[in-house]
Amino acid sequence: MSEPGRGRGEAEVNAARRRLAARRRDTERRVAALRRDLNSQLETPGTGDDEHDPEGATLAFERAQTQSLLDQARAELDDLDAAEKRLNDGTYGSCLRCGRPIARERLAARPAARTCIRCANRRR
Ligand SMILES: [Zn+2]
């Protein structure tokens, strides 16, 4: 009663699902922490004049840094959503660019990876 041609094994899919869920928990925690940071940075008073107040400029820089980390974390959540969809339609683990399988080690390190290491390097 084996089903040949079903692609990746059930165990492998389950392992990927667990990895994605764990990564999502981490990332959601990071988003929440960064949001708190950003809110407290925005609440800091005396920053009305960023251009002439050196302290204000530093605060503006810190805020911009926190914001960009927050954007990155949100983008990762989008990647995780997309990876879960690929897991459900059976295309997870294949490079979106060249169609070749993504190395197991890469998926372990970056469960939401869309491309194989070769394509990822070529882009840069
Ligand atoms: Zn590729």
TrEMBL record:
Pfam families: zf-dskA_traR. Keywords: Metal-binding, Zinc, Zinc-finger. A zinc finger (dksA C4-type) spans 95-119. The keyword Membrane does not apply. It comes from the Bacteria. The keyword DNA-binding does not apply. Residues 1-11, 23-38 have a biased composition (Basic and acidic residues). PROSITE patterns: ZF_DKSA_2 (PS51128). Residues 90-123 form the Zinc finger DksA/TraR C4-type domain. Residues 1-56 are annotated as: Disordered. PANTHER family: GENERAL STRESS PROTEIN 16O, RNA POLYMERASE-BINDING TRANSCRIPTION FACTOR DKSA-RELATED. This is TraR/DksA family transcriptional regulator. It comes from Saccharopolyspora rosea.
